Amino acid sequence: MATVTPVTNAHIAQSAASSPYQRLALGFHVMAGPCSIETQEQIRQTAAFLASRGVKILRGGAFKPRTSPRSFQGLGEPGLQLLREAADAHGMLAVSEVMDVEAVPLVAEYVDVFQVGARNMQNFSLLKRLAKERKPVLLKRGLAATVDETLCAAEYILQGNPEVVLCERGVRGFEPLTRNMLDLSGAALLRQLSPLPVIVDLSHSTGRTDIVAPLAAACVALGVNGMMVEVHPRPAESVSDAAQAISFERFDEILATMAPYLAARAAVEAARQPAPELVEACG
Ligand code: PEP
Ligand code: MN
Predict the structure, then answer these.
(1) Which of 37, 57, 98, 115 to mutate to test the pocket of ligand 1 (most atoms within 8 A of CB)?
(2) Could you give the CA distance from residue 28 to residue 214 in angstroms, rounded to a whole number?
(3) Lowest-confidence range among 81-90, 123-132, 274-283?
(4) For residue 232, pLDDT beyond 90
(5) Ligand 1 atom nearest to CA at 167
């Protein structure tokens, strides 16, 4: 049995009371937006649509970790400006990837949540640098990382920054029909072995859009804190990850599929709260 990294509740208690991070640890949150920020029109349109559906966390990449150097690498700082503006227009939080130590101060100017991508999960210099920040860090599980390696990576950030969100995004597998193998048991274990919020990225794991709805329902039932999906106003035109880009219509279908599961989970969570008279009796 692998050693289990001792991430404790103390890490959560250290973050400011009812901060965005503490709210993330309750309920189910949807983080959505395009793979890459492409144009002002694209990110504005996406933010407006998502906000109209109650989404409060807008994602979008400005520094992209692309397999080929010939692929679009992201708009850089102008992209972050567009993301910030689109998020602010609807009071949303903005999350975007930071790829290296040098870029941390720049990205910090624009985002509410740093994303550490799967390829950087064991970039220990970056993790140590983010330990010095005071903003939440969304840490994605590496492409071939175990659950324990993921918790160890989180611990680097937790040495100075208590606000880590773990993200299961699928690991390399042998199945060609999906981009990665979504490890729901890994997500359940991350949830069980640490008090940190856990979200599941259903776009980079599946690499497709047609099975996201049932998996989103599964995530709600699993008890994780949320999910991430890539949404684009015109998926076929997406400059990166077009095959997994979810259209507005598909996003609505996903929400409709999730609705009864969200209601059931809310009922289960409400039933878990101690009855008011018991609280009084204890108080
Ligand atoms: C992304 O979220 O755009 C991304 C590149 O994800 P991952 O690091 O999980 O591949
Ligand atoms: Mn992507």
Answers:
(1) 115
(2) 16
(3) 274-283
(4) yes
(5) 9
Nearest CA to ligand 1 atom 9: 118
Ligand positioned closest to the Cα atom of 232? 2
Dist. CA 53–CA 103, nearest whole Å: 32
Q: Where are the alpha helices (DSSP H) in 159-227?
A: 184-193, 202-206, 212-222
- 26 pLDDT band, cuts 50/70/90, is confident
Handedness of CA 56, 270, 202, 235 (dihedral sign): negative
pLDDT at 6: 59
**Tens of pLDDT, residues 166-183:** 999 999 999 999 999 999
- Which protein residues are within 6 Å of ligand 1, measured from CB? 35, 61, 65, 117-119, 140, 169, 201, 204
Task: Tell me which ligand sits closest to the C-alpha of residue 59.
Answer: 1
Q: In CATH terms, is domain 9-282 a member of 3.20.20.70?
A: yes
Write down the pLDDT at residue 1: 43
Which ligand is closest to the CA of 117, given by its number? 1
